[in-house]
Structure formats: C-alpha cells, structure tokens
User: Fold these one by one.
Assistant:
Number 1:
Amino acid sequence: MRYVAIGDSFTEGVGDELPDGTVRGWADLVAAGLAGALGDGVRYANLAVRGRLLEPIVTEQLERALALTPAPTMITLNGGGNDMLRPGGDTGRLVALTERAVRRCAEAGVRLVLLSGADPSARLPLGGVMRRRGTALGAAVGKLAARHDLTFVDVFGDAEIRRAGYWSPDRLHLNAAGHRRVAGLVLTALGHATAAHVVDPGPAESRRVLAEARYYREHVLPWLHRRVRGRSSGDGRTGKFVDWVPVDATAP
C-alpha cells in the first residue's frame, strides 16, 4: 500500500497538534490504521497545505502525488472548504475540478477516495451560507463518486462531528478528537471496520458576550485581515511528507 493524502488544512491535520508543535490529523491515523489492518508496512505521503483552494490541490498537489516513485496505489482527496469561505463560491466549478482529478487518477491507474470535509457551520459567522454550500457540494461529489464507482466518505453529513467537542477553539478546524473520528469513518469506508470515535458531551460551551468577543478578536479578525491582504495561512508552506515515509504495523 502506497497512500498519498492531498488537500487543505483538514487533510494536513491542523488542530491535532503534537507536543513538538507538528500536526498529525486523520490522514496520518488512516495510514497507521491501514498498516495495522493489513499487517504490513505502508508507505505514506501527505502533500496537503492549509489554506489551499481546490484548483491547486487537483493540479499541483495531484501531479506531485502521481509523480512519486514508486507510484501511489491510493490517493485521498478533499478540498473546496476554502473556496466556500469566499464570496460567490461556484459549486459547479468545484465539481468540475473534482471530476478532473477523478479522470486523471483513472488514467494513471490509481485508486481515488473522495471525502467531504466536516461541517463547522453551526458555530461560525454566516454559518448558514456555508451549510448550504457544503451540502450542495457534498451531494454533487457523492453523485460523481457513485457514477465512477469510487469510495466517498461523507464527513460533512456526519451529525455527530458537528458537536463542539470535536472542534478547535477557532471553530473552523477539528481538534484531536475530531480527526480521530474522521479516521474511523475513512477506515470503515475502506473496508477496515473501525469504531468512529465519540466524545463525552461534557459541559455546555460558553457563548457569553465576553467569550464571543474574545473569539472574534483571536480568530475571526486575523482571518479577515489575511483575506484583505490577499494572504493565506499556507503561504510559504509545503506538504509535511513530500516523499514516502514508512508507517509500520505497530504505529499508534
């Protein structure tokens, strides 16, 4: 098994930070889960970069993935979340870009697995807009996957992961528990039944005025500032594993 993950912050693993400051995330957990399930080593690469729009994911990242030596046997693709955060998101264009990736992988003889990202809309400003766009995109990508007989993991449609306990303080990225749940959903979809992680409900989240003001100051305003300057959180970054790394069957 030679597995490459491509995408944005969701696939990079932002929100699942390790003690040394590096990020892990669901794709790393899937690679470890595959190694354990198969009882053999897995080669793994992760080219995802936070902030990336779908077009560079299905062009630049995908071509780098297909150019790896030896060639990958499986690629997971998620993207479009950053596109949906921008005004005038065009679902038709995002589906067309995804279909381009589908055809490219078919030509190369590489298995493609499609994912929709988790739904953060319940706790975000203008979340209703994102929910409508994400629902439409997920439905369209699901139909595309069915048409091409591809595995599709509908994380956006998972109601459990919308709960606050799966999300980082910025309310946009999953935390370690959220990434663990996604990994279980993916492994199960790949035929390696894994119980999807469930967190204890815990105390109700504080949505008081001071807490909301702090959230906007620490997370929303910096994001808006980057948008005004035309910057991305991923500027100057590359994928965390740009070449094959071994993952053995004893990986946690």
Number 2:
Amino acid sequence: MPPTVVFDLDKVLLAGDASTLFLSGRLRQSPRRLVPLLLAAPVLLPGAALSRSRPLAARLMTRIAIGNPVGADVDAVAAAYGEALARKPEAAVADAIACARRHQRNGNRVVVATACEETLARGFLAAVGLGDLDVVGSTGTLWPPRVRWARGESKVVMLTERGYPPPWAAVYSDSASDLPLFAGTARPVLVNGGEKAGRRIERTLGRRPETVTWR
C-alpha cells in the first residue's frame, strides 16, 4: 500500500471559509436563491453556531442554495466555486495544490481530512482540479438523523474507518487542533501557523513541526 499524505482544507488548500466562498459564487449564479436562504436563516444560523449541529446546518444550506435534484450536488457546488474563484483566484492556495500534486507524482495516496462539510469540500476540490482526491469530511443527514464532525481525534477515527489509518507519511494543517493527526506522522507540517501554534505542537509531540508559508 502506498504511503498516505493527509491535507486539511480550510487555510491550507482553501484560503478563507468554504461556506462563505461557496455562497458568494452560488448567489452570483442565481441571486433568487437568497430568498429561501433568508427564510431558512432562523434554523441555519443557530445550527451553524453549535459544533454538534454544524455539519447538518452546512448540508441544509448547500441544498437550499442549490435547489436542484440531490444527485448533482457536487457538480453544482463545484460550479459555484468556479464562479467565485473567477473573481477571487487567490482563495485557491496554489502552493498547497502544487504540493498535493507532487505527492501524487511521488506515488503517495493523498486524502483531505477536514471539518468542512464533505459535499462542500468535494465541490471545492473538483473546482481546483483536485477532484480525484478522496475526502474525509463532516457529514449531516436529516434522515436517518446523523451528524459526524471531523475534528480533532474524530478525524483519526474517520480516516481509519475509510482505509487511511496512521501512520501517515505527512500531515499538512494550519492548526494545533489537528494535534491528533500530527501525532500520527513523522512529518507534521504547520501551514501558515503562528509561533504560538508551533510551540503548542512542540510541547505535545516533543519536536518542532515543519513550517511552511503558502499562498
């Protein structure tokens, strides 16, 4: 089995917030979708504020913003990101995308593990030419009622369930919240992280992470 390399999404491959970028693109495509989003805001906003319900709120927001049959969600999300990136290309982190491709050329399996809702994550990756990468992200379904938030230790559990158990060849993240991932690799890489995050990771791991500044 080839070595696995794990990338976070927000602040690593995507500069900014995935939901905000998606909505900016989708509402440019279809301004009339603002009306149902505003009507749903009393449900969506409290749901997004609570970590336990955030993936479900993101999924509902995506469905309402798209408003088409479910089967085409990833393609529709990718098109919305494409619209947004045409106006804000710097939101796709070119250095990170190039690094992911180098790992693939070197024979590594590259997987994205993210707290972002999985459909949004897959759509963004498709929009930037990384649609062939697997994604382990947060999920939420109304029926059966179920929410899984891919954050911290749960990322390790979900990666393992999907066939990507540690140890990993490298892990790229912007945050010390991914310490459980960093603990599972000999090569932790802190992306655009501050000194405080670097010291916290060093205290836990007993060694400094690699640091990179990507744009």
Number 3:
Amino acid sequence: MNYLAHLVLADGDEGLRTGAFLGDYVKGREALESLPSSWASGVILHRRIDAWSDQHPDLRAFLSRLQPPWRRYGGVITDVLFDCMLSRHWDRFGPVPLADFARATDTLLAEHQSSLPPRLLRFAAWARHKNLWQRYQDRDLLRQIFAGLEARHKRKSPLAGGLELLDRYDPQIEQVFLALFPDLKARVAAWRCHSSMSSM
C-alpha cells in the first residue's frame, strides 16, 4: 500500500495518520520511543498493513505471474497503482469527498512540520504543490512518481515504466485491489479493537 491507502486505513485518527506517513521514514523499534505514542502506533500499523498486503494471496498470485523484469519490482509498482485504484473507487472507500480529504491531509502535515523528518517535509511540499492526493489517476503525475522511484533506486530497473504494467494488467490489478482493500480494512478494525482492549 502507498500513502493514500495508508491514510484511509488510519480511519480519521490524527495520530495514526501522522504515523502512516512516518512509517516510510522511521526505521527500527528504538526510533519509536522518541515519538508520541499515537504516532508510534501509526508507524506500527503502517508496518502491519504492509505485511498483510505483501502476504495477501491475491496479490502474491498476481505478482507470481509477472515475467522478468516486472516480477522483482511488481510489488513496488502495485503499491503506487493501488492508490490509483483507491482514487478510482473513492466513492466506495473514501471517508469524505476527496477534495476535503486532500485539504485535511496537507493541513495535517503543515501543523506538524516542526516535528517531521526533513525528507518527509520535502515530500509534503511536493505533494501539496502537485495536488497529489487528488491526482492519483493522472497519468502524467504517475509517470513522475515512477521516474522518481527509479532515480532513488540508483540502478537499472523498469520502475520508470510503471504505467506499462497498468496498461497491460489494469483489470487484474483492479481485481486484486478490490479483494485486498476490504480485507485490510477488516484487519485494521480488528487491530484497533485489540489495541484499545489491551490499553484498558
């Protein structure tokens, strides 16, 4: 899952949403001790969601059918494309209108900018400038995202051509997303219930 999906799965909880962002910028368990407890919970949830997603049978089956060089990088590409699918099915899965969600997300990042890592601040500024949250179906923006992934990867890969995977397998990717996302929502709800019971 990518940013948009992690934010929706955090289900409106500000601490979990902040942790959803930090999950890609905070490594190890020791780093969690320096975070507010709700943010740390958000990082832990982020990691759980990634693990649940990676092990989901529908996603594993799809990725196993990809031919080289796509198979090695298919998980990274589908993470981005799942946000495209979430945007496509926002009327079903989005908690509020997407424009409202986008404003709230940019506001959240702005309010906590003094406490966020520099790399996340740079991403937040880029996301706000590009109106990222409302543009996950915009092919030009997706092309920029995949080009950025390849640049950060620092080795030859098919990441910059991620849209080619979408063009080849759009119905299959959509089908996997529609199986995966409701399952993740149910898992997150169970995790939150268990966490609240454990803290009582």
